[in-house]
Amino acid sequence: MGERDGVPVDWDSEFDTPGTIDTIVRDLQAAGHTVHCVEADADLPGWFLTHAVDLVFNIAEGRHGTYRESQVPAILESLRVPCTGSNSVVLALAIDKAKTKQILASEGLPTPRWQLFPTSTTALDRRLQFPLMVKPNREGSSKGISKESLVNDEVSLRRQVTQVIDRYRQEVLVEEFIEGQELTAGVLGDVVLPVLEIDFEPCRQSGERFYSWRMKEFQGNTALGLAPRLFCPARLDPGTTARVQDVARRAHQALGCVDLSRTDIRLRADGVPFVLEVNPLPGLNPVDSNFPVMTQAMGLSHDALIQRIVQLAMARYQMGRSVSVVGSDGWTAETRSPDRQMVGGQGVQVHHQEPSSAYAIASDGFLMARTTGGVR
User: Fold this and answer.
1) Does domain 95-297 have CATH number 3.40.50.1820?
2) For the chain: N or C, fewer Cβ within 10 A?
3) What are the boundaries of each domain within the chain?
4) Tens digits of per-residue pLDDT, 284-322?
5) 124-153 residue pLDDT tens
6) How many CB atoms sit inside 10 A of residue 239's CB?
């Protein structure tokens, strides 16, 4: 995986496509909400200083900085503007794979043994057993991960570590590769979703048997051998399913996630589920993203999913004069509170409109949206 104009070819892979944004906007508008799309750029703080909204539907990945995913929530928290999803601390922790693994380990959750390489000459911990996976420590959407990331000897390890450091300008996470089934499990509110299995057997010709950047970017391309089979619910017995879902729930709680999250897991042959990472800002593309696949498997349509996320956030902030969310799949929820809600005890008021509320979507996908869809 090379570079384009001096930057990695995958640099913009985290950003949502215009189609995803348009779908979320339509889902909110169909429920009677007024929607303002706000670009997550340098002008964002000023926009919220001059516009009053009830709630921000946050899908912004951030553009710059070590913990970029936390930037929009941090700005909104400083302005006391409610938003969906986890707070800035959770998003900062989750984007740092090593810190996430430290938290998981402290909670007794299985995660592959790992080592952080600040430099390419860092001494290898001899307790680590090959094959090893090499990945940037602070990237999402499988950025920096290719078939060359799976190494079987120290020479290949050094070469890959050097390449990642040079390309992504950050420390490198090296972890033991877990042979087994690739799974992902989502949490929505206090509900653990059906487990999704990603079967890479049809991708054998590509040499990639895990979620690389190419696998996510070109998923479904049979000519490239990048068409894994998805099974939701996963092909697991009830006991194993329960263990995987419990691990996802505990990981969600360990990091402090709220509203929604997706946990990526490798299931070893002996039935032990190993957490690879936790994503508190999972993709919501109705076609390509894994999270909607899981919610659809439990009968939750995409528009009902979006409304459920809104309802969960409003319940946390105790907002809404009378907010009802009713989906054809049977999801029904209602919250009631005063017309004006004091946020943070500082006298900042969230104003409610009649008959609908104002929602802002904070996104960084407008100017730098990818031209090719992919799985998040």
Assistant:
1) no
2) N
3) 7-85+321-363, 95-297
4) 999 889 999 999 999 999 999 999 999 999 999 986 543
5) 999 999 999 999 999 876 787 889 999 999
6) 9
